[in-house]
Specification:
The complex is a heterodimer. By secondary structure, chain A is mainly β. Chain A has no helices and 9 strands. Chain B has no helices and 11 strands. In chain B, strands 2, 4, 5, 6, 9, 10 and 11 form a 7-stranded mixed beta sheet that branches. Chain B has a 4-stranded antiparallel beta sheet with strand order 1-3-8-7, with no helix packed on it. In chain B, a hairpin with a 2-residue loop joins strand 7 and strand 8. Classes of the chains: A mainly beta, B mainly beta.
């Protein structure tokens, strides 16, 4: 399974864009990149995923480099409620009868400050 | 309704007790999961149920016994736990086991004394 590397912590000013990097240099061609976040004392929350094209939804944008060895999650206007641990996960290839096996790394603790 | 509910929110049990954690979803999802999360650590997968059948057991000790009585309900039966089993137990569901978009409940905070 491809391993991900994320900075342990980051700060961001409220109202500014938060750019969270993730390195996944061993990713293979059919592996997707998923992002989840976990706000303190809550369960993880799915944010976005992508394969090679950039993706955007109502929560965030995902930029994947052309060589797919790294990606960046962008929260365009961070608020205090975005303070959370953000997990970048490379989805291993689906194996029949093995389920959607999410393997969480250590994540980045994002602190949004007023 | 995109909610996964878990009860109880908090549980304190002795090492000789038997207790159960309950998880429920009404999204029509056919895959359900149990994760364990120790303090300051990421969640770790314990079990996966797909169409009410156990499809993955991540070498979890037998003192943890999962059960999926129907497609909406997932239980985790606990017996003879150790203090090191104290953790946040998270339940999740997804449309099917091919989906990595999992919806998580808020978890049950378990303390074993």
């Amino acid at each position: 399974d491809a391993k991900t590397t994320q900075p342990p912590s980051m700060d961001c000013a409220e109202g500014r864009a938060a750019n969270l990097p993730c390195n996944h240099s061993t990713i293979s061609g059919n592996e997707y990149v998923y992002w989840y976040r976990q706000i303190h004392s809550q369960g993880p929350q799915y944010i976005i995923h992508g394969l090679k094209n950039n993706e955007t939804n109502e929560m965030a944008s995902l930029i994947i480099t052309e060589d797919r060895k790294s990606s960046t999650l962008i929260l365009p206007h961070a608020t205090l409620r975005d303070t959370a641990v953000y997990y970048c996960i490379v989805r291993p290839p689906f194996i029949y009868n093995q389920g959607g096996k999410l393997i969480f790394g250590q994540g980045t603790e994002l602190s949004v400050k007023p | 309704d995109t909610e996964v509910t878990q009860t109880p929110k908090h549980l304190v049990m002795g090492m000789t007790n038997k207790k159960s954690l309950k998880c429920e979803q009404h999204m029509g999802h056919r895959a359900m999961y149990w994760y364990k999360q120790k303090a300051k650590k990421p969640p770790e997968l314990m079990f996966v149920y797909s169409y009410e059948k156990l499809s993955i057991n991540e070498s979890v000790p037998s003192r943890f016994s999962p059960e999926c009585p129907n497609s909406s309900l997932l239980n985790l039966h606990l017996h003879a736990l150790q203090p090191e089993d104290s953790a946040l137990y998270l339940c999740a569901s997804s449309q099917e086991d091919r989906s990595y978009e999992q919806y998580f409940g808020p978890g049950t905070r378990l303390t074993v004394t």
